[in-house]
Design a protein that fits this description.
This protein is mostly helical. It contains eight helices and three strands; from the N terminus they run αααααααββαβ. 73% of the residues lie in helices and 10% in strands.
């Protein structure tokens, strides 16, 4: 991925930050005015989203400004996931406390409208990240996309809890909060595990290796493929070494051909290591 696409990712995330700031204050207003636990926690979620997006922009800016910081994006993805775990824990603790000490919730049409708009905006953010990331191919943008879709569930559940709490009893807000916390924690823990794997072993190295192997084996001048090693310095800075047995004396041209094909189809910079060829 080019620096241009990294910069476009930064612009996208900056827009998302502005939206999250507005959503955070709108939800905080509704939560404080109605005394709804789920809505107040939802507002905290949006404030945390702002913080994680800022961290993500810093990570992406490092990629543009300095060579060798490509893996900072993986760290940003981990931070987003870790914040989601913290959020789930806060939801759970506060919800259990609300069961022990139930409080009334006041429902208003304006507040319902604000929460409904928040759900639509978050859905739009998630879809925008989904479609634009097909071009950007950014781990950080993908993490924000998943977080946005998770927020759609959080805000939808908060809205449902808010409406129901005004007509049933005070404990509904707390019980829905507990259920929501468990779902958030389960998804967030999985995201953390995936992020740690990416930091430790790289971004889907086995998938990349298989794709490179398929490209090389598909060429008529290749007899066999030996060891393939991936050196992952970030989503946009991956190198690989590929051992190849050629069926041709014109090795240099064939090497250049393979390097170009691997780069164009996978984005990985390749170094071809001839192991032997016919006639040797």
């Amino acid at each position: 991925m080019s620096n241009k696409n990294v910069k476009n990712s930064i612009i996208l995330i900056a827009v998302i930050i502005a939206l999250n700031v507005g959503l955070a204050f709108a939800k905080l207003y509704v939560g404080l005015a109605s005394n709804s636990l789920c809505v107040m926690l939802d507002s905290i979620n949006s404030f945390l989203d702002v913080a994680t997006c800022v961290i993500t922009i810093i990570a992406l800016a490092l990629i543009v400004k300095a060579k060798g910081y490509g893996r900072s994006e993986y760290l940003a993805g981990f931070v987003v996931s870790a914040v989601a775990v913290i959020l789930g824990g806060l939801f759970l603790i506060r919800s259990v406390n609300r069961i022990a000490m139930p409080e009334p919730v006041w429902v208003g049409a304006t507040s319902i409208a604000i929460m409904s708009v928040a759900v639509v905006i978050k859905l739009g953010v998630g879809l925008a990240c989904f479609f634009l990331n097909k071009k950007f191919n950014s781990v950080a943008v993908k993490a924000i996309m998943l977080d946005s879709f998770l927020d759609v569930g959080v805000s939808s559940t908060s809205l449902a809890s808010y409406v129901i709490s005004g007509t049933v009893n005070y404990a509904v807000d707390a019980w829905i909060g507990i259920a929501l916390s468990i779902v958030i924690l389960a998804i967030a823990v999985r995201m953390v595990v995936d992020s740690v794997k990416t930091i430790v072993i790289g971004d889907k190295p086995e998938d990349t290796i298989q794709k490179i192997k398929s490209i090389v084996e598909g060429q008529p001048f290749v007899l066999s493929v030996g060891e393939i090693k991936i050196h992952d310095y970030g989503t946009y800075d991956k190198l690989c070494t590929v051992e190849v047995e050629f069926d041709s004396s014109d090795i240099f041209d064939n090497q250049d051909c393979l390097v170009d094909m691997i780069k164009n189809e996978t984005g990985v910079s390749a170094q071809i290591v001839p192991i032997r060829h016919k006639g040797e």
